């Protein structure tokens, strides 16, 4: 094949200059840093920069503000970063590997699969440690992925984008209903497990981060290596195979990566939806069609959006708070409608 063909696969059609994309990514990193600062300082108990510095350099265990920073807000923010990165990468990979602009870990049923397996392990099998039920999360995410793809594959056309979206919606509805049914059978645990129906960063401590971050970190590294393969798939299976790409193996590996990322993210903060659907589209608008840039843009932008939603949930009903999954549902739906309204869905 010609050099032009191979460069098209590597960069994607219509790729933008690398220098400008690198500057844009650096700006997003700065935005994420600012959001992290506000995530630590804003809430029912406001704290200033001086208190933050003292909490790390001269910690006073008798100070309620410093304890809140170290024990609650810092782990909450870090979990938001890791989970957001996982969900953003998962959404971008799913949209690329299925060539479906509506693909998302929530809509495709992957988060719901992880959640129902976690709830089953806790309520039925008595699992107590996140180190135990994170494995059930992986199994649930993998089960949902296989189920959606198998259902969508029925028929002459195979797993088309529309059939994948419909199959994902159906599987999500079924699994969410099962989760609700299991939780409702134990009224004493209802408040504790309500989290598994919507998703939240509240009450997530360093123990959760320690158990899930290594899996997410491995998934992130694997995900960032898939950009070239996703660019090839964007050109169509036939051309990708002609250029030497093993399409079926690539798809299997990408679904495995998505299962790892979504399983760990769901174990960390519950089944959060919409953010993995909308943010990759925004990333594509910012950096163009090259998945080698869409993936890192999504990885940085999604945690920022997730933490902003978490901050809003803490501030609007203070001293109480709205779960981040609720806030994202309220904000994500009109945001996606706006994207569809002002931009051709096929171009997203």
UniProtKB/TrEMBL annotation:
Q: Which UniProt keywords apply?
A: Cell membrane, Membrane, Transmembrane, Transmembrane helix, Transport
Gene3D superfamilies under this entry?
Answer: ABC transporter involved in vitamin B12 uptake, BtuC
**Signal sequence interval, chain numbering:** none
Where located? Cell membrane
Q: Where are the transmembrane segments?
A: 21-40, 77-94, 106-126, 132-152, 164-187, 213-231, 252-274, 294-317, 324-342
Membrane topology term reads:
Multi-pass membrane protein
The record's comment on protein family reads: Belongs to the binding-protein-dependent transport system permease family. FecCD subfamily.
Its name, as the record gives it, is Iron complex transport system permease protein
